[in-house]
Design goal:
Blueprint lengths: L3 E10 L3 E9 L5 E9 L2 E6 L5 E9 L4 E5 L1 E4 L8 H13 L1 E3 L3 E6 L10 E6 L2 E3 L11 E6 L3 H6 L6 H15 L1
Parallel strand pairs: 4-10
Antiparallel strand pairs: 1-2, 2-3, 4-7, 5-6, 5-12, 8-11, 9-10
Amino acid sequence: MQWITHSETDVYTNPWFTIRLADVELPDGRHLDHYLIRQRPVALATIVDEQDRVLLLWRHRFITDTWGWELAAGVVEIEAGESVEDAAAREMLEETGWRPGPLRHLLSIEPSNGLSDAVHHVYWSDSGEHVGEPEDAFESDRIEWVSLKEVPDMIARGEIRSSNAVSALLVLHRLRRL
């Protein structure tokens, strides 16, 4: 059953996102007002080394007041003509100080598609070069190589919480086990 959007109006806009109010028709003909968030694409990246370790950031998220392991991530600067893959490499370098080798697309997810149109595109590389301290050192408390073998247990303990990191790391865990 498909819902039909008849209109959307802006409620609030800033450079990061737009909150909109949609007039939505349900399959039975009823209408409802539904708030939604329009966002730019997000690009993520990590490196998996020859020891099946993945490069992660340990960071605090003030909104939920939680700590967890995450992948380097940020919005794609589409207005500047940046590609998703280039954004993933840029974020990796800015947040970790590592320049990834050739990136491979791992997956694209919609972490909250009942509320937002955000799409998170995850890339990975099996090589990289440490070029120095991260430009955006304020992004994390520490940067570490973490064994992919430990990922399922880390998720179970709540040490990896963000949906994009959980999804990406479970896929990488599975790929590297095959």
